[in-house]
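For the sake of transparency, this paper describes our internal protein records without simplification. Because each token names a local backbone shape, the row as a whole describes the fold. One such record is reproduced below, unchanged from the form in which we store it.
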Amino acid sequence: METANEKGPGSGNGTAKDARRKAEKTLKLIIKLLAKAEGSPYPEEAQTFQEHAERLMVRYGIQQASIDTEAGKAGRAQEPMVEERFELGGQLRVGQARGFTEIALAFNTLRVLQATTSSKKIIYLIGAESDVAQALRLFASLRLQLESAMAAWWLGYPYKPYLSAHEKVLERRQFQVGFLNSVAGRIRALYDNEMAAGTTGSELVLASRSDRADEHVKLLHPAIRLARRQSLSMGSHGAHAAGSLAGTMASVGVEVAPADRRCLGAPGR
């Protein structure tokens, strides 16, 4: 007969189920907060929703990594590793690809490959299924917010009449880079804060998940080459500052041969 303090045969499984339920609740709240951030006409309110969503995204990632690690220890199936693509087109795709890549890498457990066609920049995200889905969800939300923020800024930009067509592209690109880099920096800071305040072992479970992503990259693309960071034509400091400020208020089909993809998520990042 068991006493109240003894663990029965199913107690470990019950703990795992509790952890999964907690993670599911977190995910539902993230989705609601992002929807509110996208729909709010008030920048301060949108910022509050976005920052709360990003904070929960980081916690959700840690929760999922912990669940995955425990499943591995218990001999149960771990979360599958996947590769998904995110496409960017238009004149501003180069700067957007740079910014969205920085955001993906800020999540620590994702690896990023990048490919270029004549009309698109393609970002390939590799990692645990829930991590990839989370990044794509954030990308979709930020894309809407970025377009809205840039349109409002560009409408009142006083120097447009004095710029060439190329300079106009550079200014808008710089705004977008500033916006997206601001979000990436915030996510990195959230991870640092969670690690400082979190439970013992959080760094280890994230490292394990990151290692699995590295292994999946090698499995899918054994001959992948690391990309050199290419220089990017820049706009003005003013455009970058405006984009960074807007980012702080952000309420957070051509096939490419695998050999042509460049790895931007080097191990040990």
Q: What stands out?
A: Helices lie at 11-39, 43-73, 93-106, 129-155, 165-197, 202-220, 237-248.
